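User: Here's a chain of 247 residues. Predict its fold as tokens.
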Amino acid sequence: MGEPAPRFKRILLKLSGEALMGDTGVGGIDPATIERIASEVAEVRALGVEIAIVIGGGNIFRGLAASAHGMDRASADYMGMLATVMNSLALQDALERLNVTTRVMSAIAMQELCEPYIRRRAMRHLEKGRVVIFAAGTGNPYFTTDTAASLRAMEIHADVLLKATKVDGIYDKDPVKHPDARRYDRLTYLEVLQQNLKVMDSTATALCRDNKLAMVVFDLHTRGNIRRVVVGESVGTLVTDEENRPW
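Assistant: Prediction complete.
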């Protein structure tokens, strides 16, 4: 038997900045980790799937944490957006070393480094088989990269939002602190909001719910999981509205 056919034509992959640190436990970008992520993205692209990516910046600078220590929130968030650009350029470099044509599109203009975000141009890149990395969040302070991922997924008409995390799905409580934590296989967005489950911030969650965008939360550190999700294997936790269930 050959490779299973992909279940989705176009996906948006949300990566946290912390994911790029690997197991180092310190800030910055771990070269081995970013190379592994790039190779997994390349494998999925080889299946014919159109891939857009949003990366956080928490491995370099976290605006919310800085504002909690007295920094102006808008200034801190802009610094966080610049951190996402650094991560995006690093992933672009890793992908292009694997011969995967990649474009970085920034919500904040910096023409010497990357293209400005223009929705129709982004969709054209995807149609041509290029991986597109959306940098600088939404370009606005007070909005997280989770919200940026939800927004961009809607704008490009992605079939699903894949949120790669450090755990293998959504739990009823923190599995690190509570050994008896229970993992959910499926949830609705309403259940996520009502139970205050810390999947994404409430703005991003409500945006997905209102626009009926399915999301899969899964463990990035298990090699091959991105491909497994794309071909429809039961990996992580599926979050949808009541009517829209892609499998």
